[in-house]
Design goal:
Blueprint: E1 6-12, E2 15-16, E3 23-24, E4 32-52, E5 60-80, E6 96-117, E7 124-135, E8 142-145, E9 147-152, E10 184-189, E11 201-204, E12 209-212, E13 218-222, E14 225-229, E15 239-242
Parallel strand pairs: 1-4, 2-4, 3-4, 4-5, 5-6, 6-7, 6-8, 7-9
Antiparallel strand pairs: 10-13, 11-12, 12-15, 13-14
Amino acid sequence: MVNISTQNVLAERNDFLKGHGVSIGSETSGWVRNVTIRDSRLDGTNLAVRIKTCRGRGGGVENVLYDNLWGSTVGGIQLTLNYEKVSPTNGSATPTMRGITVRNLAVTTESHGLVCNGLPESRVEGIVFENVTISGKGAGSQSCTDCSIVARDTSPMPNCPAPPAPPAPSPAPGSPTPAPDTQCVLKKQLSGDKCVAGNSFVCDHTLHTVVISHGCRGEFECEGKSVTCDVHGSTSEAHSCSCK
């Protein structure tokens, strides 16, 4: 159905066999909202979680919960705004995907674990994984672009690049250049992602912490103390390490 909304849907206590399971999209012009899929077994299903749309559809999907799903699937999780390859279009025809929670999911997969592909002009955002376990030979296969996921108690962890940092504002003409923070110095970089002062690492002198983001990990001098901040996880998250 085109430009007709789907809202307030509950699918629970199902046995999903071969096929698509509960697949949302690709028609999203009227929006799909407030959907819960829970307490269900999967046996040979194509995907445990599948939400798909593409440029030209417009509208979007938001506020969806997948909770307490288990079993065996071909693939794990697919969240995509690239269901069909379409050239960029106007804003009203560009879809949105946000506010998707996957909780208490345990599946064994054959082909892949995670696909989360947004668009440069419309990132997939507000995605939360809680207690998600994807195992089997496809578990380690991931594709994640223009997508932000916050994951807790999840294996494997999503490997999604952090969004590009916004450009720093240009100083007003004649304004002095801010002095570097001499109490917050990178001594040794431990990550492949570059650590940049004021961007991917800063020191909070009120809380006496080093705050790292965008995949930065390293050894720092913070307020005269040597601090190793080597936290692995999603590059879309910020992590702090005490300077005390």
